[in-house]
Structure formats: C-alpha cells, structure tokens
Design brief:
This protein has about 425 residues and is of the alpha/beta class. The chain is built from 14 helices and 14 strands. The protein has two domains: about 160 residues, Alpha-Beta Complex (Aspartate Aminotransferase, domain 1), CATH 3.90.1150; about 250 residues, Type I PLP-dependent aspartate aminotransferase-like (Major domain) (Aspartate Aminotransferase, domain 2, 3-Layer(aba) Sandwich), CATH 3.40.640.10.
C-alpha cells in the first residue's frame, strides 16, 4: 500500500515517528499491536462520538449483519435514519445517503451547479471537503499536512471553476460575489473549520454568507461532515442559527461505518436522479450495516436523558483550560481553541493569539507540535498526528482520562 496506509495522514509523516497500528479499541482507549494503551483523541477523525465499540452500536450492527450486509434495495433502516436526520435539521426536507464525505460534497456541488446553471464554486483556503478534483485546491487536513495543498493530477480546467476565499473574511466574500456573482453557483465551507485545526466562525460571518447567497442566487453549502451531530444535536447550523441550502454530513451519522449524506430543501434535492436529471449513485449507499450503526449512534446522542452534549461540553472545557494552564506553567505559547468536543492546541508564536484563518495556522510551529505529539504518545495519549487536525473528546472519555491527559501535557510541554 502506498506509504503503508489507506489514508495519508495516518502515516505520521509530519510528526517524525513510526505510525502505531491499532489492534483494538474500547471506550476512550486504543490498544496498539505492541499492547500499548492510549487515551484516544483521534476518534477515527470524528465518527466515534460514543467512543470505541459502544454496546448499542455493536449490538445493532451484529443484528443487522445477520439479516444481510447489503441488498442494493431500499430498506426500512435507510428510511428511519433519513427521518432522524431530517427531523434534526430545520433546513433539511430530503436527504441522500452516500459512502463518504468526499461523495457527499462532490454531489452537493454538482447539484448546486445544476440548480443555478452557474459553473463556479467558492471554497475557503484550509477547509477540506474530501478529495474530489475540484475541491482538492488549497485544501486542509492531510493535503495541508503533506505540504502540497493542491494535488498533481487535477487539471486546471477543473479547478478554474474553484474560487478561493480566506475563511472568516466576509469582506473578501462580498468582493468576490460583486465581481463574479453571475458565475458563482455556491459556496461550500465547514461552518466550524476542523481541517486546519479547530477554528470557529467569526461573529456575523455565517450570517453574512447567508445574505450574500440570497442576494446573488447562490447555494450555501455547509459541509458538516465533521461538525454534524458533533457540536450540537442540531449540528453547527443549529448552534449558530443559520440554515444552509444544502448540508453535507458524515462521520457521526455512520457511527464508525462508511456513511455520509447530503440534503436540503425538497425543491433542490428533486434535481437528483431518479427524481430529476442530476446523476449520482452508489453500490453501498444506505447499506444496512451503516444505517444500523448510524441509527444506534444518533439514538444515543439525541436522547436528552443521556445529556451527551452537556457532558462533552463539560469534559472538553476542562481539557481546554487544563491544556492552557499546563502550557503557561511550562512557558510554552499556545492557543487552545474549542467548539464543543472539537479542540485544537495551536503552537502559536504568542500565547492566546486567536487563530482565525489559514494564514494564522501557517504561522504555527509544526516542529514543536511534532515534539509535543511524540511526548504525549510516550505518556499514553494519542492525538491526531498533525497540527492541522482537530482532537475529538468522546462520550466515553471521563474525568480520569481528562486529568491524565492534562498531566501528560504538563510533562510534554515541559520537555519541549
Ligand atoms: P471522507 O471522504 O474522508 O469520508 O470525508 C471527507 C471530509 C469532508 N468534509 C470534512 C469537513 C471532513 O473533515 C472530511 C474528512 N476529514 C478528514 C479528517 N480531517 C478525514 C481523515 C482522513 O483523510 O484520513
């Protein structure tokens, strides 16, 4: 396998050590092939909001597996998960399941172009929306980590219709729309950037984009593959009170299985085949195992009695404060940014320097992050292996795990 991995970020290229191979997971813990145990903040890069092997999800998948892993036909489970997603999001009347976030964003963009009959799509520098050709431009996540944000193999004929904006810069967005509104089909963004580290939207930013899209007949697409059901039981769009025209989901809605989705108003989704002319398809889309895992996961997190989001908020806030204090005591300048259970420790030039866009992120000390990553690994704490990734706290993390993490960070900061 190229680089020995199935996805580049897993190769640990930017953190200067051999990648660990996972053997098993349980709760907030991962065990590697050498039987080392780690408190896990990768969480499969977002899906595992309940931690590893949550009983309701394992039971649901096992039961579904015994009835059939795939039919290539509609199933009741698919309809049930579709209704759970639609009921949770005010702006969603119809939804289509796919197998990855890449497919979800690729399809949403095709739909936006068809519905508006305009060719251009805006994305923000540092935001990552999967690896479809038109979006692999100044992308975040692994593309940023590996230092070639735009990938070879993507003809300029395709990216000519991808326009770039800095995240959180509403003036730049206004100028671009003023200049090219007749070309712009829509804008896709992570409402909370998670693929250059965790960066919340500036006050008024999302509202401003909503107004620009309304003014210029453009589709506002929230890529909530990472934030969806992660930061709020109604996703980031409920947290900030902004309803996009299309929403892309993934990760949590599959509970660890390959599952993603895109959806929005029926009048838009009706463009999609077989209801309408815009083609998109998938052999394993809506497969029963992924649907079972997704239903079990959303059932747990959406049940108010479980107080999942309240617990995640409290634990994650404690981690954020603890990391800041540990860094301060070790005299290491960092900025710890968080939204809900998404958190990133940025190694900034000065402590508590707000990180608001890619240009701010690019100033971070990635070498210092790499040393911190390795020291945390030695202390039994597994972080995502890049400064440009988000850490995830799960419902399986407890006070003891957070305390151990803060203690480990104290040692790791001191060793820098
Ligand atoms: P997938 O195609 O990897 O399922 O989803 C792509 C995607 C789309 N949109 C957002 C906001 C995403 O965060 C992602 C994928 N996230 C990365 C983690 N930063 C996946 C990890 C990886 O590439 O291995």
């Amino acid at each position: 396998m190229p680089g020995g991995v199935s996805s580049p970020v897993r190769a640990y290229k930017s953190v200067g050590c051999e990648p660990i191979f996972a053997k098993s997971g349980s709760g907030c813990m991962v065990t590697d092939l050498d039987e080392n145990q780690y408190i896990d903040y990768v969480g499969s890069y977002g899906p595992l909001i309940l931690g590893h092997c949550p009983e309701p999800v394992v039971a649901a998948m096992t039961k579904a597996a015994r009835k059939g892993s795939s039919f290539g036909m509609p199933t009741e489970a698919e309809t049930k998960l579709a209704n759970m997603v639609i009921d949770a999001l005010a702006g969603m009347e119809q939804v289509r399941f796919v197998n990855s976030g890449t497919e979800a964003t690729m399809s949403a963009i095709r739909l936006a172009r068809a519905a508006t009959e305009k060719p251009a799509i805006i994305k923000c520098t540092g935001c990552y929306h999967g690896h479809s050709d038109g979006l692999l431009v100044e992308a975040g996540s692994g593309a940023l980590t590996l230092g070639h944000p735009s990938s070879p193999g993507v003809p300029s004929a395709i990216t000519d219709n991808t326009l770039l904006l800095p995240f959180n810069d509403l003036d730049a967005a206004k100028q671009l729309f003023e200049a090219k509104a007749d070309q712009i089909a829509g804008i896709i963004l992570e409402p909370i950037a998670g693929n250059m580290g965790t960066i919340p939207p500036a006050p008024g930013y999302l509202e401003g984009l909503r107004e620009l899209c309304d003014k210029h007949n453009a589709i506002l697409i929230f890529d909530e593959v990472m934030t969806g059901f992660r930061v709020h039981r109604g996703c980031a769009q409920s947290l900030y009170g902004i309803t996009p025209d299309l929403t892309c989901l993934g990760k949590v809605i599959g509970g660890g299985m390959p599952c993603a989705a895109y959806g929005g108003k029926a009048e838009l989704m009706q463009f999609m085949a077989p209801a309408g002319p815009v083609y998109q398809a998938g052999t394993l889309s809506g497969n029963p195992l992924a649907m079972a895992a997704g239903i079990a996961t959303l059932t747990e997190v959406l049940d108010p009695k479980n107080e999942v989001y309240e617990r995640l908020e409290a634990l994650s806030a404690k981690l954020q404060v603890g990391l800041g204090e540990a860094a301060w005591e070790a005299n290491v300048p960092v900025t710890v940014q968080r939204v809900g259970s998404m958190i990133t420790c940025f190694f900034t030039e000065q402590e508590n320097t707000p990180v608001t866009c890619y240009d701010d992120v690019a100033k971070c000390d990635t070498e210092k992050f790499a040393k911190f990553f390795r020291a945390m690994l030695d202390e039994g704490v597994l972080l995502p292996p890049s400064q440009f990734e988000t850490w995830f706290v799960s419902f399986a993390h407890d006070e003891a795990a957070i305390d151990k993490t803060i203690n480990a960070a104290g040692k790791a900061f001191t060793a820098l």
